[in-house]
# Entry
Amino acid sequence: MEGSLFLSNLVHSFLDTPYNQWSFVIRMGHIALATLMYRMFMQFHNFMEVEYLPVVSPPQHQKESAARFAERTGRAMASALNVVQTYHSFADYALLSKAAEAGQENFSPFMVEMAKIQKLYHLSSSEAVDFLERFLAMNPDSSGCVKYQDFIRVLRLKHSRLSENIFRFIDVNKNGTITFKEFLVASAHVMKLPLFRQACDVAFNESDEDKDHYISLSEFGGSTSLAIPSLAMSEIQALFEMFDIDGDGRISGDDFVTCLRRNPLLIAHFNHHFISKDLDAETGLEEIV
Ligand SMILES: [Ca+2]
Ligand SMILES: [Ca+2]
Ligand SMILES: [Ca+2]
# Structure
């Protein structure tokens, strides 16, 4: 979608109760919304063309779910209009608004056809917008791609084999950069794995050595150093501050889970805790990372 809204086709649908789906399209030419409004108010006659699209009916002898019916209607409308049917939804508009708010000029890399992703991962619009916020902090270039160095900077990681593996996991097409879609799908995939919440609990309990229900800075340092050896104190501190959501100097269970839901890929830092635990050998915890 480009910067301005074109009203070449305004498609409307309504149900001819109780079953048949009627649709029509109003053609007003390729014209920007502001220009159209101006012209409409400045002339006595306004012309438009209304075309009724084919009526879509449910099968006579079998039941059909509302979602399936809507899908079939969408396909019929797209084919009557001779346009490609996409999976953009209102969530894409929320992403576009966020990208615009952040001063991005090219929105297309951030419109990821959310209907498909939401169907796969049951991701809410606000979760997707939160992931976009993280991604935009990684300084994407004009085509919406993020480099490894910017990725590890925002996640407060240092260069290590683990960080490289996380980046490679996201970079599905292996071109050395990540797009928002790659980042979103990888994050949602990890966060929505059935074992994710259980993995968070195990990681928290294993890191909380003195069992006072908080992870102190030294406990955190001990735990993360097992994943990334030779971490400097300042690097441990930076990562600790990201997990300490309320900034009270210790990581509570809520802090820990909130941080990992915002940055699901960081669960990889606690992978060593899962190896000794028989979390669920059948499904394989390695799958999480
Ligand atoms: Ca890529
Ligand atoms: Ca503790
Ligand atoms: Ca805290």
